[in-house]
Specification:
With 142 residues, the protein is mostly helical. The chain has helices spanning 2-12, 16-40, 44-56, 58-70, 75-97, 106-130, 132-141.
C-alpha cells in the first residue's frame, strides 16, 4: 500500500520526474560500473546481485515514461527513454529468463554493446534536456 502511494504521488506531481530520472540514471551508471569492477575481481555473486538491482531500475524509468507520456514530453526524449527500457528488457530476457551466454560470441555481444551504449548516451541526452546539473551528474558517472 505504501509503495502504491509513493508511485501515485510521483505520477501526480510531474515536477519530481526529473529528479527521479536523474537519480535513476546516476544509479544505473554507478551500478554498471560496479558490475564491471566485480566481474574483473571475480566476484560473480556480486555481479548477479548488482545485476538484479540494475534491472529493477525498470520500475522508476517506467514511472517516468508514463508520466512524460501523460505530460506530452517531446518525442525524442520519449524515444531515448524507450532505448534505455529496451536495454533493460533485453538484459532481463537474456540474463535472467533465457540465461543465454551471449557475451562469449562476437555476433551476439556486439549488438548488445551497441544497445548498452545507446542506453548510456540516451541517459546523457535526456539529462542534458533536464538541466546542466543533471547532465553533469549523469555524464560524470558514465
Amino acid at each position: 500500500m505504501f509503495g502504491f502511494t509513493i508511485i501515485t504521488y510521483l505520477i501526480v506531481n510531474g515536477g519530481h520526474m526529473n529528479l527521479l530520472f536523474t537519480i535513476s540514471a546516476v544509479l544505473f551508471n554507478l551500478l554498471i560500473a560496479g558490475i564491471f569492477l566485480c566481474d574483473r575481481l571475480g566476484k560473480m555473486q556480486w555481479v548477479k546481485r548488482i545485476g538484479i538491482v540494475v534491472v529493477l531500475l525498470i520500475v522508476p524509468f517506467t514511472i517516468v515514461l508514463i508520466n512524460w507520456l501523460i505530460l506530452r514530453v517531446s518525442t525524442p526524449i520519449i524515444l531515448a527513454l524507450v532505448v534505455v527500457l529496451l536495454y533493460l528488457f533485453v538484459e532481463i530476457l537474456l540474463d535472467f529468463i533465457l540465461k543465454v551466454d551471449f557475451r562469449t560470441k562476437w555476433s551476439t555481444h556486439i549488438p548488445y554493446i551497441l544497445l548498452e551504449y545507446g542506453a548510456f548516451f540516451s541517459l546523457i541526452y535526456i539529462a542534458s534536456n533536464i538541466s546542466k546539473t543533471a547532465m553533469w551528474w549523469v555524464s560524470i558517472t558514465f
